[in-house]
Amino acid sequence: MVANPKERLTYEDYVAFTERLENEQRIFELIDGEIVEKIPSFTPSEIAAYFIRKLGNYLDVNPIGRLTTPDGGYRMPNGDVTIPDVGFITKARLPHRPEREAPVPPDLAIEVKSPTDRVRPLRRKAEKYLEGGTRLVWLVFPEERKIEVYDLTAEDVFTIDIEGTLQGGDVLPGFTLKVADIFKSLDD
Span 40-187: which CATH code? Predict the structure, then answer.
């Protein structure tokens, strides 16, 4: 964490900070008025790449939206700037590519827990995505080999284990992905 926790930074402060020369190769989010650096980690990156490949293949056949990698940001209605490990937004909600962050939340946010992440803030981030209008959030837990699904239309969070299958629902109609396949690379 970079900022003084008593000082709530604005989007303009965030932009100025991220554009400093010393920060050009680093990735930051703005969460609750505080600048937070995203720390790279190999396993979460490998899992995010798998999702990107599968979702990219889906979007080749169903060109309904745009896919972002771990450096594509989204401005949330509460002022946060989030950078999911994988993001998806429909072309209907984002018809033109923005110069910086998308001015709206993603339709799908995928966050892969890294060794430096704490579970409670990660879950709170998922809830904030939903509060901001994100329709579907997948929290991926590599060590436990499970995925928590946060769906804007569901009353409760549910967990899919290694035997289950993720479904894209209304966000990605017809998209399915076996959870075991997501974690297969962890076995070699």
Answer: 3.90.1570.10
| Helix %, strand %, coil % of the chain (to 5) | 30, 25, 45
Q: What are the structure tokens assigned to 99, written together?
A: 């110069």
DSSP letter at 186 equals G
> What pLDDT does 5 receive?
52
Asked if 182 contacts 148 with a C-beta cutoff of 8 angstroms, the reply is: no
Residue-by-residue DSSP string for 86-105 = EEEEETTT--S--SSSBSS-
Give the mean pLDDT of the chain.
94
Alpha-carbon distance of 129 to 123, in angstroms, equals 10
Contact 107, 65 (CB under 8 A): yes
Residue extent(s) of CATH 3.90.1570.10 domains in the chain: 40-187
